[in-house]
């Protein structure tokens, strides 16, 4: 599916009546608990009037500090991974239920760094997703192609397949606990951003895939983010795309003023 939009058409903002805009920071393996508190305290006043959902995705050890620092604010806390079993002999893992018990609301799953360095596959992303929603978390499920896959022209099929596998067994009712993040692997942490047209095209493919499975109305209600070197300078154009409902932000989420600028762009 190719989208050829004129520059005027490009400034059609997402329909906030259908779904909410969500800006989530992915802090990756950064910040000690004290540093997390300091960063959240810096972000809080800057996003207090946000017209979108604001989330910070912190390392496991920062979760208590982040929950404390965000108390009474409009910022929600996300983990960056979870295991699907509730408890047991799974050394080094943290269950979705444990996160939920602490007060965590969101969990990033299937991030390309987890797929590349820690052996996550489409099948384990599906299990983690089912575990997360079963525990009552909202899963931020990451999908996206590598540069060579884009060059082979298989981006749309690949992303549709990743989406279908990740959501296997997820019911239409549970879709309210799903956010999809389209994150082209070649754009993550590289400073290379997908063009607004590329981002919108793939987000629209993801929405069409959801519509195939769950119907158009349900698909229209799902928040689909773009992630990959989104920053204070390019956020507005990316977020102006009709199928881009927010962002998953890595590097720029560690700088409060930049993160706040992205939140501001999503609030328009
Ligand atoms: C990410 O980690 O999900 C991400 C998009 O990183 P960055 O914004 O740094 O590219």
Give an account of the 3D structure.
With about 270 residues, the chain is of the alpha/beta class. The protein has a single domain, classed as Aldolase class I (TIM Barrel), CATH 3.20.20. About 40% of the residues lie in helices and about 15% in strands. The chain has an eight-stranded parallel beta barrel, surrounded by six helices. Helix 2 runs parallel beside helix 3 and helix 8 crosses helix 9. The radius of gyration is 17 Å and the shape is globular. Bound molecules: phosphoenolpyruvate (PEP). Phosphoenolpyruvate binds next to strand 8.
Quickly describe the structure.
This protein has 12 helices and 8 strands. The protein is of the alpha/beta class. α4 links the parallel β3 (75-79) and β4.
Observed structural traits:
268 residues; alpha/beta; TIM Barrel; 8-stranded parallel beta barrel; 8 strands; disordered N terminus; binds phosphoenolpyruvate
């Amino acid at each position: 599916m190719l989208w050829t939009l004129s520059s005027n058409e490009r400034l059609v903002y997402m329909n906030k009546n259908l779904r909410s805009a969500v800006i989530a920071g992915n802090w990756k393996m950064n910040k000690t608990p004290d540093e997390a508190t300091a960063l959240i305290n810096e972000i809080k006043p800057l996003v207090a009037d946000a017209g979108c959902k604001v989330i910070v995705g912190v390392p496991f050890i920062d979760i208590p500090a982040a929950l404390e620092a965000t108390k009474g604010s409009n910022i929600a806390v996300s983990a960056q991974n979870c295991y699907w079993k509730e408890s047991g002999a799974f050394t080094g893992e943290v269950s979705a239920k444990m996160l939920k018990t602490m007060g965590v609301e969101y969990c990033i799953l299937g991030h390309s760094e987890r797929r590349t360095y820690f052996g996550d596959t489409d099948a384990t992303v599906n299990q983690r997703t089912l575990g997360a929603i079963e525990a009552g978390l909202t899963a931020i499920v990451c999908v996206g192609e590598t540069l060579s896959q884009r060059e082979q022209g298989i981006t749309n099929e690949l992303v549709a397949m990743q989406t279908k596998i990740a959501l296997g067994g997820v019911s239409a009712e549970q879709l309210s606990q799903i956010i999809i993040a389209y994150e082209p692997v070649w754009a993550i942490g590289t400073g290379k951003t997908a063009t607004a047209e590329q981002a919108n095209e793939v987000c629209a493919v993801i929405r069409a895939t959801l519509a195939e499975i769950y119907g158009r109305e349900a698909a229209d209600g799902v928040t689909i983010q773009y992630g990959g070197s989104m920053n204070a300078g390019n956020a507005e154009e990316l977020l102006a795309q009709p199928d881009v409902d927010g962002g998953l932000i890595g590097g720029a989420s560690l700088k409060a003023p930049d993160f706040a600028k992205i939140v501001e762009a999503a609030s328009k």
